[in-house]
Amino acid sequence: VPCTSTLNIQCDNSPGNSIRITDVTGRKINLNSIDRRNNYFSVDVNSLKSGVYFILLESNSGTVSKMFIKK
């Protein structure tokens, strides 16, 4: 998924849901602007350099990993 400024993620409304972003080497990327509203996460990726990243959605039922490209 290519993005330039905001990455929006829809998930179930489980209370244990959280997200992590890593670069291709597995290094965790700290972003201060992650907004959660009900079953949506909105992540401001403006501060990321162009490249490939992974977003990991963690919940009580497991972890799902998806790749995205920051333009």
Spatially, the strands of the biggest sheet line up as: 1-8-7-3-4
Radius of gyration: 12 Å
Mean pLDDT: 84
Low-confidence stretches: none
How far the N terminus sits from the C terminus, by CA atoms, comes to 10 Å
Q: Helix count?
A: 0
What class do helices, strands and sheet pairing give? mainly beta
Q: Considering DSSP H and I runs of 4 or more, what fraction of the residues is helical? A: under 10%
Beta-strand level of the residues, as a percent range?
over 45%
Q: What is the 3D form?
A: globular
Order of helices and strands: EEEEEEEE
Beta strands, count:
8
Query: Largest sheet at a glance?
Result: 5 strands, mixed
Description of the structure:
The chain is mainly beta. The chain has no helices and eight strands. The chain has a five-stranded mixed sheet with strand order 1-8-7-3-4, with no helix packed on it. Strands 2-6-5 form a three-stranded antiparallel sheet, with no helix packed on it. A hairpin with a 2-residue loop joins β7 and β8 (62-70). It is globular. The termini are close together.
Descriptive tags:
five-stranded mixed beta sheet; mainly beta; 0% helix; 71 residues
Short description:
This protein is an all-beta fold. It has strands at 2-3, 6-10, 18-23, 28-29, 34-37, 40-44, 51-59, 62-70.
Secondary-structure topology with pairs:
Layout: E1 2-3, E2 6-10, E3 18-23, E4 28-29, E5 34-37, E6 40-44, E7 51-59, E8 62-70
Parallel strand pairs: 1-8
Antiparallel strand pairs: 2-6, 3-4, 3-7, 5-6, 7-8
